[in-house]
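Deliverable D4.2, example record:
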Amino acid sequence: MSGKKLIVSLVAVAALVGAVPSMAADATPETYKAEVEPICKVNTEANEKILKGVRQKVKAGKLDAAAKQFRAAAQALKKARTELLQVPKPPADATRLTKWLGYVKTEVQLFETVATKLAKDEETSAQKMVVRLISTAKQANNQVLDYEFRYCRLQPSKFL
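Output generated by the structure prediction step:
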């Protein structure tokens, strides 16, 4: 009997010791920012390459090439969003960050819509979607002003 009690006691102690680091590792705004900024930096750098010259292609009427660029940008942002969803959110800001990530999802959808519109030679409709894209980015950035993001600020107007 004493052997079973010892094993149960050791398991209980191990469970408590295992729980302490997780409580101490609660996400804070600083740790959240430190974890998400590298993800966003990779996405920003990718978008700089992906969307390079897209405005000129649209003006020159090369809509298929521009559509491919927008589709690639949507894929890059979708990948970044998936990674961002894995980062633990600070409990105090969880609602706000969830809303921000919802705007990021909308950005992905708008990039895809722009690509579709350009592929169908619907330049005017694509321009309307770009306006929505910029508006959505502003709303998203307003959600996370306190974080003072550098790379996680959505700035589609920088590329378009």
